[in-house]
Amino acid sequence: MGPPERQPAPPRFEWTQVSEPHRYVTKVWKECNWLQALEGGIDTSHAPILHRALHKDAAHLGIPFDGAFARGKAPTLEVEVTDYGDRYFGIREMPEGGRYVRGYHFIMPLTQLRPNGPKTIVDGHYWVPIDDENVMVSNFGYSYGKEPLTASESYDRNAGNNFGTDIGVDNDFRSVRNSRNKWMIDRAAQKRDTFSGITGINAQDRAVQESMGRVVDRTQEHLGSADKAIIATRRLLEQAVRAVQDGGDPSGVAPTYYNLRAMDGIVPDDADWHAQMMDVMYPTTPAATAS
C-alpha cells in the first residue's frame, strides 16, 4: 500500500528467525472493531483478574493464584514512546517486598510483544482489521533460548487458540466459543475455579471485547491511570495519520524493532528496575537458534 518508494523494510521480528520447534503461531477471527481488540490486548491491568485461577486445583487453568502476577498489588503503569511505538511497564509491589515488573512493547500499528514468565519465551499478537467490525488476530510465541517449546508452551497451551478444538480452520478461523453460544460459559467453573468460567485465556479476552458490541461507544468511557498504554497508543495512531497526511513517515516503519523482547521479573526494592529491564528488553545477541 502506498507509493513503492516509501515501502518500509521487510518485517523481521525475532520469532520469525528462530527454528520451527522454537515457535508457534495461530490465528482467530474476532467479532469486534480493530481498535477495540488491540486496546484490550495491550491493557495489562485486567490479566490477573480476568485470567486467574481461583485456587490450586482449578479445573480451568489460568494465571496461578499464588504467582507474582496475581499476588502483586494494583500496578503502576509507565509508558515510554519510542521510534517504533512505545514500551510500557506494569510495576506491582509484592507483599514480601520487591516489585514485580512486566515490560511490553507495542510496535506500530498493530503488534504487541508480551512476557511469558521466567522461561526464555516471548508471546505476542498481530491485530489486523478485516472491516469496521471484525479483526483477524494472529497469536505467536517463541523461545529465544536453546530449548524448543514444549507442547504445553505451544499448541496445547491454555489460550483457547488451538486449531480444531478452539478455532474452526474450515470456518474462516472463527472461534468455537462465541457470542451465539455465550462463549460456552461454565457457571459452575465460574463459581468455583475461575473469574469468567470460560476456557482459554484469549477466549476470555474475546468474550469481554466482543460482548461490548462490535464498536464500543467511547463517549461513555472514563480513562484513568491504568489506561496509560491505551492513551499513548491512541496518540501514536493519531500522530501517524497526521504524519502520512503531511507526507511524512509514521512510527514503526524503520527496522529498529528487530531485536526486541518482552520481559518480566521481580526486582529488589533497592534496585533500578528500569535499568534491569532495559538490559533484557533490548538484547545485543540474537536468539540461540536464529538464522
Briefly say what this structure is.
21% of the residues lie in helices and 23% in strands. With 291 residues, it is of the alpha+beta class. It has a single domain (4-281), classed as Naphthalene 1,2-dioxygenase Alpha Subunit, Chain A, domain 1 (Alpha-Beta Complex).
Could you please describe the fold and organization of this structure?
This protein has about 290 residues and is an alpha+beta fold. The protein contains 7 helices and 10 strands. It has helices at about 35-40, 45-50, 70, 185-190, 200-210, 230-245, 275-280, and strands at about 25-30, 75-80, 85-95, 100-105, 110-115, 120-130, 135-145, 165-170, 175, 265. Strands 1, 2, 3, 4, 5, 6, 7 and 10 form an 8-stranded antiparallel β-sheet that branches. A hairpin with a 3-residue loop joins β2 and β3 (about 85-95). The longest helix is centred in the last third of the chain and has 18 residues, at about 230-245.
Topology:
Blueprint: E1 23-30, H1 34-42, H2 47-50, H3 68-71, E2 76-81, E3 85-93, E4 99-107, E5 111-115, E6 121-131, E7 134-143, E8 167-168, E9 174-175, H4 187-192, H5 201-211, H6 228-245, E10 263-267, H7 273-281
Antiparallel strand pairs: 1-7, 2-3, 3-4, 4-5, 4-10, 5-6, 6-7, 8-9
Helix pairs in contact: 1-5
